[in-house]
Amino acid sequence: MEEKAPPSGEMPKPAPKGRGLWIGIAVVVIVVAVLLVAVFAGWLAPPTQPPPGPTEDEILKIGTVFPLTGGLAAFGPDGERAARLAVEEINEAGGVLGQPVELYTADSKTDAAAGRDAATALIQTSRVDAIVGAYGSGISASVLQVAIANEVVQVSPASTSPIFSNHSFDQDWFFRTAPSDALQGVVAAHYAYENRSFRQVAVIGINNPYGNGLATVFETTFESLGGTITKKLIIPEAQTDYTGTLTDLWDGPEPAPEAVYFVAYPDTGVQLMSDWWTNRAGWPTEWVFSEGLRDQTLYVDELVTRGIDVSTFEGSSPVSPSGAQYDAFVSRYMAEYPGDTPTLFASNAYDAVYMIALAAEKAGVAAGPEIKAQMLGISRPPGTTVVPGPAGWSAALNVTGDVDYEGASGSLNWDEFGDPTSSYEIWAMDQSNQIFQKEFFSEATVLGWL
Known about the structure:
Rossmann fold; 7-stranded mixed sheet; 16% strand; 14 strands; 2 domains
């Protein structure tokens, strides 16, 4: 029987249901398999992202405000070099919080306004967590106002005015690695009264917190011992002539002084002493200077060049650093900067950097408030002794408990005000017009006078 074709235009019948279902399943399985292979092979994986970098609070940034120019330029450049050496050593031995420390420098120009502007730029532009500086108490005071407002720790290697030993003044943001003039003034007064037997002394101080503070401490202590201050004069800095000031001391109604205690920096000191030398026949006296004038090149040598006889000059100062840590610092410093012997306060600047770094490491974060909270604790017993230098810092990173920093400039056991104590010396001139230590007063002796 002949089979009939379907009518024209009629759709063919679909495949049986069972056959279509299996075709669909096969397609799905193939697609899933391809996708799985692609995922495991990494074809469709998102691009690999680099690990996140350190946050700002994981990188310690330190700024320096040093007198690279101006009246204290004898000290600033070596302080900056010492700070840089400390940062290099710390970074060589592992850094702080696992990251290299960053150092930013600025010039105070030995001027309070310039120092304030330098600190502002370091904080606002470089975003530093701590400032080492300044030299000169008046400059440090102007820097401190910026530091307080921005919650940045400040450590001065050379500002010695007693005004900083006051919680209401510094709000606990200020520390120093040089001792307060509350000690130096006492030592100088005792030396003048007891060792030199002076009974009538005049005082001259430059018109800034350093000059005012130290002159006042000397005056108060000398009078308490039974001496007489014939006159105290506070003078402007870096003038071209001080003849009028000196005339005031000798030509007024007061008795002529047996000695003058002079608190100044080299620029003022050289001019005043030159004016005195010109008229020395009418103004006979002995001179005792503060540590601000303890500079061989810019002060003593300059006076000698001008024909002034310096043989009888003396001065007071915190004792010159000594010992194993200081010797090691000098050795590393001179290897880094051949031909340059570190000046006064260079080791204090070096220690300031190490103490900030140690406080940040202990805090676990590079931020002002947290660093501030650790500062006193890392400076004094009890705790594992930590010393500066690459080996010392490497060891410090492995200490889990309390630490006690013993620095190149001394033990630096801070009191509640962030002030270290110190031994003191009287410096004088040898036969070659070189500064040497004439008298030594131990820390215990000094503290016994307070």
